[in-house]
Write a structure and sequence with these properties.
Elements: E1 5-9, E2 24-28, H1 30-33, E3 37-41, E4 47-54, E5 58-64, E6 67-73, E7 82-88, E8 92-93, H2 97-104, E9 116-128, E10 131-140, E11 143-158, E12 164-175, E13 194-208
Antiparallel strand pairs: 1-2, 3-6, 3-13, 4-5, 4-13, 5-8, 6-7, 7-9, 9-10, 10-11, 11-12, 12-13
């Protein structure tokens, strides 16, 4: 089920005089249009993670435990949908305290000087079916670069507390050097300790805001 708009084939000419035979027409799905509104990301049921190649042979995975964000969804025009996320760098967790400490140091994130990683969307589009693409500005270490995230809509539901929820999961790939994260070490057998390419992953549950009185 598509989140925003669906395509249908135009009716035959004798029943749809205003449409050209065989043309595709965008039709809003009322059930999906009902999802239009403002949402708050629920960190307790979401995750923001990353994967990076280590020593040329395996992957190291980590996540950020503290962040807040909002979504504004438009059920009739996806291009008007927006997203904003602020992530606390100090909440990084790779499962190894010493490694986390190194990542927080000036070699990598320099969390004391640059405590937040932020994303502000600039465009959104439906790619096909339940797949969407959101583009925006990712700011890290005071460097702002464009980031495109491919997303899949996982559906909507009302939870046991009556909260209306939507779910998305997605991913993006970046070169960490674009944001000034250039630390590395050469291996005796050739190659380097860490790859430049990093995969970002997002699993988002967001709660719809109550209507204004």
């Amino acid at each position: 089920m598509a989140l925003f708009n669906r395509k249908r084939t135009a009716a035959p000419a004798d029943t749809a005089p205003a449409a050209t035979a065989g043309a595709a027409v965008l039709e809003a799905d009322p059930a999906l249009a009902a999802l239009t509104g403002d949402y708050t990301i629920d960190p307790a049921h979401s995750s923001i993670g990353f994967t990076v190649r280590h020593a040329m042979v395996t992957n190291v995975r980590g996540s950020f435990g503290e962040y807040e964000g909002t979504l504004t969804l438009d059920g009739t025009d996806p291009s008007r949908s927006t997203a904003s996320i602020d992530t606390k760098i100090a909440s990084i967790d790779t499962g190894i305290a010493d490694r986390d400490g190194h990542l927080l140091s000036a070699d990598f994130f320099d969390a004391e000087t640059f405590p937040l990683m932020t994303f502000r969307s600039t465009a959104a589009e439906q790619v096909s079916g339940d797949r969407f693409r959101i583009t925006g500005d990712l700011t890290l270490r005071d460097v702002t670069k464009p980031l495109t995230i491919d997303l899949e809509f996982n559906g909507s539901a009302t939870d046991v507390y009556g909260a209306e929820r939507v779910g998305f999961e997605g991913s993006a790939e970046i070169l960490r050097s674009d944001w000034g994260l250039t630390w590395n070490a050469a291996l005796e057998t050739g190659g380097v300790m860490l790859s430049d390419k990093v995969k970002l992953t997002f699993d988002i549950s967001a709660v719809k805001a109550a209507p204004q009185a």
